[in-house]
Amino acid sequence: MEVRLDERTVSPAETRELGIEVGDFVAFDPRVEITPSGFIRSRHLDDKACVGCMVAAAKALMDAGLMPSRRTTLFVSNFEEVGHGASSGLPSDLAELVTLDMAAVGEGQASTEFHTTICAKDAGGPYHIELTRRLRNLAEAASIPYKIDTYPYYRSDGESYWRSGGPAQVGLFGPGIDASHSYERTHLDSLVATCRLIVEYLLS
Can you point out the beta strands (E) in 32-168? Predict the structure, then answer.
């Protein structure tokens, strides 16, 4: 990768004088575009799309004067990609962990950009069958468009939780996103379906 600086500098010393140092983070313009047909193109939809869905679902409940059926903790991890995601920082009496993560769209996958996708199994193993079944039943009862898929090359925060010895049931779902870790794309229908399933789960 080459990073081109829009500054007049010809030596490492001059570059350091600008406040730029080895180890600094490089942030890319996400180049967000929303088309009239409902497609959303951007970098970093994995996993900011799920954070947006989580916040939107919580706001929808508040605006409607509704409360989750049990105590709920919203947890945002910055560490999924390095492997220790949700391995710590959660309540000790956690009963269920429902992880939100993108559903990879691609050859051999059932996921699409127009549904929420419930993950039955990923590279770390199967998700809790009863919780997965409950998410599926909630989607069907509310007529939420969904798919079931497995991801042989994909891991989530939920997997880091159970590998750290967490005893709670773990489930996973999220919006379908194409071209992960590149210039990604999803559709509003997928985000809406994901928000709706979050709300149904919180009220169940």
Answer: 33-34, 39-42, 96-100, 103-105, 116-122, 125-126, 146-151
Say which amino acid occupies 17: E
Q: What is the pLDDT of residues 149-181, one digit of tens each?
A: 999 988 898 988 988 999 999 999 999 999 988
Residues with Cβ within 8 Å of 99's Cβ and at least 6 positions away in sequence, in order, are 86, 156, 157, 158, 161, 170, 171, 172
List Cβ neighbours of 41 (8 Å cut-off, separation of 6 or more). 31, 32, 33, 34, 35, 183, 184, 185
Residues designated catalytic: 80
Q: Inform me whether the pLDDT recorded for 11 exceeds 90.
A: yes
Provide CB contacts within 8 A for 137, sequence distance 6+. none
Tokens 């990609």 belong to which residue? Answer: 81
Q: What is the DSSP secondary structure assignment for residue 82, as one 8-state letter?
A: G
Pick from 184, 177, 123: which is nearest to 147 by CA?
177
Question: Which has more confidence, 190 or 79?
Answer: 190
Tally: H helices and E strands in the chain:
5, 9
What's the angle, vertex CA 131, arms to CA 113 and CA 104, rounded to 5? Answer: 25
Going along the chain from its start, the domains and CATH numbers come out as: 32-203 (3.40.630.10)
Element (H, E) at 187: strand 184-187
Give residue-wise pLDDT tens across range 58-68: 999 999 999 99
For residue 163, the tally of other CB atoms under 10 A from its CB is 15
